[in-house]
Amino acid sequence: MLEIASPLTACTAAPPTGSALGLASSAPRALMQIASWAGFEEALAPVLTRLGLQGLGDYRKARQAGDVTCFRIAPDRLLLAHRDPLALSASVEVLDPARAASLDLTHARWIITISGREAPALLARLLPLDLSPGVFPVGSFAQSGLHHVGVLLHHRADARYDLYVPVTWAQSLWTLICESAEPFGHQPEREAP
Amino acid sequence: MTARRLPGGGRIDRSRTLRMTFDGEEILAHPGDSLASALLANGRLLVARSFKYHRPRGLFSAGAEEPNGLVHLRGGARGEPNSRATQVEAHEGLAARSQNAWPGLRWDLGALNQLLAPALHAGFYYKTFIGPFRGTGFWMFCERFIRKAAGMGRAELLEDPDSYEKVNAFADVLVVGAGPAGLAAALAAGRACARVVLVEQDSVLGGSLLAVPPGEGDAWLRRTEAELRAMENVRILTRTTAFGAYDGGVFGLVERVSDHLAEPPPGQPRQRYWLLRAKEAVLASGAIEQPLVFGGNDKPGIMLAGAVRAYLNRFAVLPGRNALVCTNNDSAYATARDLAGAGAQVTLLDLRQEVPPDLVAPLEAAGVTVMTGHGILAAKGTSQVVSAVVAPLDGEGRARGPLQRLACDLIAVSGGWQPALHLWSQRQQKPVYDAAKACFVPKGEGLPGFTCIGAAAAKGSLKEALEDGFAVASARVEQAAERGPSLEDEDWTRDASPLRAITRADGRPLGKAFVDLQHDVTLEDIDLAHREGYVSVEHLKRYTTTGMATDQGKLSNLAALARMAALQGKAVGAVGTTTFRPPYTPVAIGALVGRDHGRHFRPTRLTPIDDWHRANGAVMTEAGAWMRPWYYPEPGESLGQAYRREADHVRKHVGLVDVSTLGKIAVQGPDAAEFLNRVYVNGWKSLAVGRLRYGVMLREDGFVMDDGATARLGQYDYFMSTTTANAAKVLAFAEQLLQTAWTDLQVHVTSVTDAWAAFALAGPKARDLLRTLATETDLGSEALPNNHLVHAEIAGVPLRIHRMSYSGELAYELYCPTGFGRHLWEAVVEAGGPFGLKTYGTEAMGALRIEKGHVAGPELDGRTTLQDLGLEGFASTKKPFVGDVLRDRPALRDPDRPSLVGLEIEGDQGALGGALLFDPEGPTVGHGEGWVSSTTYSPALGRNIALGLLRKGQDRMGQKVRVVDFLGGTSLVATVVSHHFFDPEGARQNA
After folding, report:
1. Strand B18-22 vs strand B95-97: parallel, antiparallel, or unpaired?
2. I need a surface site. Which of B21, B424, B499, B730 has the fewest CB within 10 A?
3. Beta carbons of A124 and B750 less than 8 Å apart
4. Mean per-residue pLDDT for B389-407?
5. Which residues have CB under 8 Å from A55's CB, separation 6+?
6. How many C-beta neighbours within 10 Å does residue A90 have?
7. Cβ-Cβ contacts under 8 Å, B717 against chain A
8. C-alpha dihedral, B134 to B138 to B140 to B146, nearest 10°
């Protein structure tokens, strides 16, 4: 099976040993948008039930059930991240296309993971979000603008944040993130003169 | 160290000596010194030349309000002009130099301007250089010389080697200023568990406490700082200036991270721009001491009394041994007391006729001579003050008796204090003049979430300042009362006098009396503006330049307003004050830019094939945010040669181009067809699954917005493509319509531009090549005719093949998931070898579409209609669509409107886009009869061609026009032809 090619081809310097900040990137395993209209919850209920999700959730807290993470990205849209593409595809097949629409966005996003004690400090240099523990605890997510590009930030675990970035912007954002990490010990590649 | 450095005291680290230079001369300092204190300690009184007259100037203050001591720091690429010496921290190796002086500070040729001083009054430039001749040419010629002669430092033109960064921060309470009031406020809010950010522009906390003799205040300061630093909910930012206050509790802060070092440590920024969002803001920025206006009040050796006290007690520098202290309020008595305590001979002149005995007696006991009802009429001296003309004064500050001359080497002045309300005022607040306190105070309806405390609220004593600070969190949590340090201090608001100018009996100063030291604005300039009818404070400011630029009214406002009020016979409050604007102090452009420069000036968008293009020699070009392959030159080829070869190759063989940049929008839902019907001018309800159709959409005003092909993938599932340039606009437009006008439609639109890579395979051999790849798919013209699509698999990659053509050749568009794009591209390239496949870039793509007469961005420029572009036939008459009504406006139906035509250019030279079209016999004036929109050399036709919009174009086929490019100075002749230059019947694409 073909692997999804990384859009990142430069600035992949590993963090220094013992760094309080880690930078990594990966392809989403499976990413699907499901959307509906009036009767949103009812229309999506079959999928949510199959995935083990209870209710639609809110716009700040991601819902987790087994291998699936659910982000409510708009009043009538959910973004589902799943570790198993086949399982996700099978789950959304139960949707009635007259009442709801599914859209595979796996290739549309790339995940940049920022981890470590200094992760919030680096993110503060990138996003206008209050990431203090009381405001943005583990499990929170937010959609925001990173260097004018719309991204989704997920506080996946303690000191671990996933940025879902549009894949065609990923390289540009990645180099910016690497340069912004320089005060924390990273040594990004320099722009060619 | 020198005669001026006191042997003991101060808050400097005498265990280390720092070596610095000023104008190449060595300056010794200690950690804790500022450049200003080091200069004074080394006996350097002359530090600058003034803005206009190049008069010798010395340090006037000890803080951000410094009007004179602007220096150029460092050198080369790290050079920074206009730095206030009072805010520059001493460090080993610091190199500073004076500015605005040539050949040097002591002997400055520009000082000849002083001879011209009588002519260089306010408005001199306007009156002299603007108006004598018609137009602005004369002024623009003179301006370069005027700016050279005047002004401040010069910025370096070298690239800054340092980095700057931006940080977002959030707080419950922002406290601006870490003087006693600010510290108390931060302490109280911190104890109440609020998230506090305490901002201090100095390198250490303490504010005015640092200017008083060491003692109880230091102990309290240490305890307070320790407690604050121990609180996890309190962030202390020193070397940080809150320079801007904006709506929504947003504040701009700039932190000078590495300015106190020779150069930033590896990886660290020089400065950091904080964008802080605070629920509450507490302004504890203190007050700024005001100058007194008298003849020669700008001479080196004349300083603010508070500054003298700061140099004495913080830096252990005695600015003068024979001091005159001249004041209109109580606060300068402390300076006189401390000067006397340091061994100086001191005479205090108080402008007030009567002074409370409790002030005078202790001073006289300390050996200070106190003269009430007296003031300085003029300071004397050339490069520094050596004496002063002292006079008894009446109640209006006019000399009323015999003058006497007192020798001195220091004059400390205090014209009262003005709360530093800049941030508060930036939020469109107007301060009110408080006659009792002789200053503008923050009154009014109040600004929710914004509180001024301490001296910033015109609380004149330390006791009141602390009470204000501790009261900040009283609403949050009940706290034990705390008094803070008990210090002997004078209340500057008690019996404050409004007198700020000292003049002769006739009301005129004895010599040049400066209101604004930074801009060389004198009392006479204010008088002149009054005589010329400037009655508004805003006009006065702009005419005289008082209070402009970096001063922002810190030192000049009160004196100017007082003079203006007196001339108009009004109270100061009646003339009002100007509005302060960000920044409070200058901010380096680098800090505002952060990392948003160079390759990060804006984000860049790359297709999944980007690396392949570069690795295979493509010359890339910007297309909006995208980087696209422009052309793939063979050795020695120019752009022109390469694109002609590429386009020709496509016509004769087969070519592959990366069109992943096309906008792609998923349109889903049971009402998707109805949505498309409304958005596009043509009909969509009959489009079958597996078919695709070209569509045109209009704006509401009837002009063409965009075009593209949309495919039907499923019953409720459509795949819309847009032009690269308009993708975001079309998506936003569709979303707006669905959320506002068409809420009845069950449709979702989602950008899938990132999800799909797209390539166009074009040329007579395209089908043969594709057959070798998609072996399981029937690609025959019957199975897959034009405007049809099929799902297929190539090299393990699932994809859709759309049969459609932009080039006019037999062509296919291949859409595959982005992450497999590179794999598919390489598979096609590899398989294409036997077919002579060549990749081609945007330039050749443009040539092919111009030959075919397809419109693109240059034609869809927001000014053209369906009729203009010959697309009227697409518009359905059976259904409404966006723009349907307004496209029928008479102006848009005017038969004289320019319409799309082809142009065959005569000769070897091609036309340039934007060139204007003129009648061959008519005059070459105005905008002509149309313009060239797209231009190329056509390999297929062997000549230069162009698309253009020409008035009554369809009626002028076969006629000649002149193609005039005013920028390039060329004039060509062209024949008007159909814009379908090549294969107008479409035989090739339908093959």
Report:
1. parallel
2. B21
3. no
4. 96
5. A41, A48, A63
6. 11
7. 97, 101
8. -140
Q: Calculate mean pLDDT across residues B36-52.
A: 94
Question: In 3-state terms, what secondary structure has residue B373?
Answer: coil
> What's the token pair of residue B890?
């008479």
Selection from B664, B675, B679 nearest residue B726 by Cα = B664
ipTM of the complex, rounded to two decimals? 0.96
Q: How far apart are alpha carbons B532 and B124 in whole angstroms?
A: 13
Cβ-based contacts of B689 with chain A (< 8 Å):
none
Q: Are B715 and B735 in contact (CB under 8 A)?
A: no
Q: Quick check: B715 contacting A, CB < 8 Å? A: yes
Cβ neighbourhood burial of A162 (10 Å; 0-12, 13-18, 19+): buried
Tokens of B643: 């694109």
CA torsion angle for B464, B467, B472, B474 (degrees, to 10)? -150
Nearest one of B710, B715, B751 to B733, comparing CA atoms: B751
Q: Which helix (H) or strand (E) holds A2?
A: none
Test A172 with B605 for CB contact under 8 angstroms. Answer: yes
B669/A180 touch (CB, cutoff 8 Å), yes or no: no
Alpha-carbon distance of B416 to B738, in angstroms, equals 62
pLDDT digits (tens, 9 = 90+) for A119-147: 999 999 999 999 999 999 999 999 999 99
The DSSP code sequence of B787-810 is TEEEEEEETTEEEEEEE--SSSSS
Q: Which of residues 151-170 of B touch A (CB under 8 A)?
A: 163, 165-170
Residue holding tokens 């004059």?
B411
Instruction: Quote the pLDDT of residue B122.
Output: 83
44-83 in A: which are within 8 Å (CB) of B? 76-77
The whole model's pTM is what?
0.93
- Which residue matches tokens 């002063």? B388
Spell out the residues 6+ positions from residue B230 whose beta carbon is closer than 8 angstroms to its own: none
Strands (E), B464-618: 514-516, 521-522
Instruction: Check pLDDT > 50 for residue B1.
Output: no
Q: Round to whole Å and give the CA distance between B255 and B272.
A: 5
Tens of pLDDT, residues B75-86: 999 999 999 999
Q: Convert the pLDDT of each residue in B292-347 to its tens digit.
A: 999 999 999 999 999 999 999 999 999 999 999 999 999 999 999 999 999 999 99
Distance CA B868, CA B628 (A): 30
B947: left (phi over 0), alpha (psi -120 to 50) or beta: beta
Q: Are B131 and A146 in contact (CB under 8 A)?
A: no
Cβ-defined contact of A107 to B668 (cutoff 8 Å): no
- Measure CA of the first residue to CA of the last residue in chain A; give whole Å: 40
A151-160 pLDDT per residue, tens = 999 999 999 9
What SS3 state is found at B517?
A: coil
**Cα–Cα distance measured from residue B976 to residue B950, given in angstroms and rounded to the nearest whole number:** 9
> Nearest CA to B383 among B71, B44, B13?
B44
The partner residue sitting opposite B598, judged by closest CB among A125, A168, A191, is: A191
Cβ partners under 8 Å of residue B269, min gap 6? A183, B162, B163, B164, B165, B257, B258
Structure tokens at B980: 């379908």
b/e code B71-105 from CB counts within 10 Å (16+ = b): bbbbeeebbbbbbbbbbbbbbeebbbbbbbbeeeb
- Whether residue B714 lies within 8 A of chain A, CB to CB, comes out as yes
Judge: A107–B275 Cβ closer than 8 Å, yes or no: no
Nearest Cα to Cα of residue B315 among B213, B181, B183: B213
